[in-house]
Design a protein that fits this description.
The chain is α+β, with helices and mostly antiparallel strands. The protein is built from seven helices and nine strands, in the order E-E-E-E-E-H-H-H-E-H-E-H-E-H-E-H. It has two domains: 68 residues, 2-Layer Sandwich (Hypothetical Cytosolic Protein, Chain: A), CATH 3.30.1230.10; 112 residues, 2-Layer Sandwich (60s Ribosomal Protein L30, Chain: A). The strands form three sheets. The chain has a four-stranded mixed sheet, sandwiched between helices. It is elongated, with a radius of gyration of 19 Å. The structure holds zinc ion (ZN). The site of zinc ion has 7 residues, from strand 5. This is RNA-binding protein YlxRQ, putative.
C-alpha cells in the first residue's frame, strides 16, 4: 500500500492530536502547526543552524520539511534576514544537518521506548511473535541484512500491515539497545511508535526528494 505523500500532514478532523502554535514557513509563507516545520536559529558564531527539536534559545525561523521551501528561504535571503544577517554555509550543509538531527531524534525515541519496555528485538523473536498474531507499531530492520532475510522481514511486515523501515545497520541497531548486532527491532503499538514512524517517513520523503 503506497501512501500519498503529497497530502497535508495535519491531523484528521476529530483526531485527538492537539495542534500546537502556528508558525510561518520562510519559503512558501504558509502558516502551519510548528510540529510540521523545521526551526532555525543563529549560533553564537553567527551561523544559521537547524534546531530540529526546538530546544535552542533565541529567535527562531521556520520552514516546511522539504527541499523547495529550504531552498527558497535561503535563496531569497529570508532565513538570513530574519536571523539578523546570519550565514548559511550551503543548503547541502543544512540538509545534512537536518537528516542527522532527525536520526538523533529517532534514536532518542527508541531509547524512551526501550526504557518503557516497548521494544522487542532479534529477527527470530520478532518474526515468531508476529506469526503468532502479535501486532507491532513499527519494525526496524537492519539495512545490511542478507537479501533473503531482508525480503522475509519486509514481506512479513507488509502482510501484517506493520510499517517497516531500514535506516540503520545491524551494529548500530544493537548499540541502540546496548546489545550486540540486531537484525530486527520492533516497537509495540503506541504513541512512541507513531512518533518514530512519523520521523522516518519524513526522512524517507526527504531522501527521495534529494535523489529524485
Ligand atoms: Zn513551506
Amino acid at each position: 500500500m503506497k501512501k500519498d505523500r503529497s497530502k497535508s500532514r495535519r491531523p484528521e478532523p476529530g483526531s485527538v492530536v492537539k495542534s500546537g502554535p502556528q508558525r510561518t514557513c520562510a519559503g512558501c509563507r504558509k502558516s502551519l502547526d510548528q510540529d510540521l516545520l523545521v526551526r532555525y536559529v543563529l549560533s553564537p558564531q553567527g551561523e544559521i543552524v537547524i534546531d530540529y527539536r526546538r530546544k535552542l534559545p533565541g529567535r527562531g525561523v521556520y520552514t516546511c520539511f522539504n527541499h523547495e521551501c529550504v531552498d527558497t528561504a535561503v535563496k531569497r535571503g529570508q532565513l538570513q534576514r530574519s536571523l539578523r544577517g546570519g550565514q548559511v554555509a550551503s543548503t547541502d550543509v543544512l540538509w545534512q544537518a537536518l537528516q542527522e538531527q532527525v536520526r538523533a531524534k529517532v534514536l532518542s525515541l527508541i531509547g524512551m521506548a526501550r526504557k518503557a519496555g516497548q521494544v522487542v528485538s532479534g529477527t527470530r523473536q520478532v518474526l515468531s511473535e508476529i506469526r503468532s498474531g502479535k501486532h507491532f507499531g513499527l519494525l526496524l530492520r537492519a539495512s545490511d541484512l542478507s537479501p533473503a532475510i531482508a525480503d522475509k522481514v519486509d514481506k512479513t511486515a507488509r502482510c501484517s500491515g506493520i510499517p517497516c523501515f531500514a535506516p540503520f545497520g545491524k551494529e548500530h541497531m544493537g548499540q541502540l539497545l546496548g546489545k550486540s548486532e540486531r537484525g530486527v527491532v520492533a516497537l509495540k503499538s503506541g504513541s512512541l511508535a507513531v512518533s518514530v514512524v512519523d520521523e522516518l517517513e519524513r526522512l524517507d520523503k526527504f531522501a527521495g526528494e534529494l535523489n529524485g
